[in-house]
Specification:
The protein folds into four domains: 68 residues; 85 residues, Immunoglobulin-like (Sandwich); 102 residues, Serine Threonine Protein Phosphatase 5, Tetratricopeptide repeat; 52 residues, Serine Threonine Protein Phosphatase 5, Tetratricopeptide repeat (Alpha Horseshoe), CATH 1.25.40. 45% of the residues lie in helices and 27% in strands. It contains nine helices and twelve strands.
């Protein structure tokens, strides 16, 4: 029957990474003596000799020993497995890729990397949790998002969506209002809106282009209205010309040419009205005969009688004849005419 074996080990560490060791095995007489060196934590390189008799007089070595002992995991030795992380960043409102910006980590796990023109980025990360920071500039809200990089995958694809910033939404609102005002040809309100947009984002090409379009459209509209006013004025359609000149002043109240046109056309309108009134009066005179007012018969009779009693028979006769022309059946005039004729015949004899 064999007894269980025994093992004994003695280590002496004179230096930090250097050890002297002795190992004994019972019931065998085998012994190990040597030195070990640890270049890395968890790794030992041992060199020594194996012998059976350990008295100094009879010390004999069977053979040399060389061994490497590893007490660390493979992950600790070679590092964990990296995951290839690909990502695309989209605009949540439009679905279009973000063409500029940076991706970084709150934990400084990797250096900030730029976003490609197609909105993509590429990282090589160890499994774990990372707080991603997506910064796409003033147009977008900065996104801070915790993302898990799981083990067991060689690749991981991420879709990240970010929103417009409050400033950019205000900018877009001004741009939209400016476009609507331009459609209705409200040029000054359109210019105010686009200038407000430019104050927020001075470098936006869209806003500058829109401002140029509004200015050009305003110039074209004013030129068009002036041309129509000139044609109407030549055709003596002064009311129409006045309408066009006033439309110009509505767009540009300081337009000198339009102001002069309004003053000139107003004078022409007054002159045309006076001329029309004079012509109307002439036509009425030609069409309607002048009606004389009927004399007052009672006054004529009173005058005729007064002349009769004063003995002015001829003058009285003329007055009573005038009464009969107005009122041929007037009896009083006939009576006095008969008397006058009788007196005149008597005087002639």
């Amino acid at each position: 029957m064999k007894l269980p074996g025994l093992y004994m080990s003695v280590e002496v560490q004179p230096l930090e990474k250097l050890k002297l060791f002795w190992e004994g095995f019972y019931p065998s007489q085998k012994r190990n003596l040597g030195i070990s060196y640890s270049p890395l934590d968890g790794i030992e390189i041992a060199m020594g000799v194996k012998y059976a008799d350990y008295t100094p007089e009879k010390f004999t070595a069977d053979h040399a020993i060389f061994a490497i002992r590893v007490s660390r995991s493979l992950e600790a030795l070679f590092g964990p497995k990296y995951i290839i992380v690909t990502g695309r960043i989209y605009n949540v409102e439009t679905g279009e890729p973000i063409t500029s910006g940076t991706v970084s980590s709150q934990e400084d796990a990797f250096k900030p990397i730029p976003v490609s023109m197609d909105g993509s980025f590429l990282l090589k990360l160890k499994p774990g949790y990372y707080t991603f920071i997506i910064d796409a500039g003033k147009k977008y809200e900065k996104l801070v998002k915790l993302i898990e990089i799981p083990e067991g995958k060689g690749k991981l694809a991420l879709d990240i969506k970010i929103k417009y910033s409050r400033e950019y939404k205000t900018y877009l609102n001004h741009i939209e209002k400016a476009k609507k005002f331009l459609e209705k040809e409200y040029f000054d309100p359109a210019l105010r809106e686009v200038e407000n947009a430019i104050k927020i984002f001075p470098d936006e090409v869209e806003a500058q282009d829109l401002k140029d379009r509004i200015v050009e459209a305003k110039k074209r509209k004013i030129a068009e209205l002036k041309a129509k006013a000139t044609i109407s004025e030549r055709n003596k359609d002064y009311e129409e010309a006045l309408k066009y000149y006033k439309a110009v002043l509505k767009i540009n109240p300081t337009d000198k040419e339009a102001k002069e046109g309004v003053d000139r056309v107003n004078i022409l309108i007054l002159e045309a009205k006076k001329k029309a009134e004079l012509e109307k009066e002439k036509r009425l005179r030609k069409k309607k005969p002048v009606r004389r007012a009927k004399p007052d018969i009672s006054k004529l009779l009173s005058r005729g009688k007064r002349l009769f009693f004063e003995g002015k028979y001829k003058e009285a006769k003329s007055v009573f004849l005038q009464v009969l022309r107005v009122d041929p059946a007037n009896r009083e005039a006939k009576f006095y005419l008969d008397k006058i004729n009788t007196y005149l015949r008597a005087l002639e004899k």
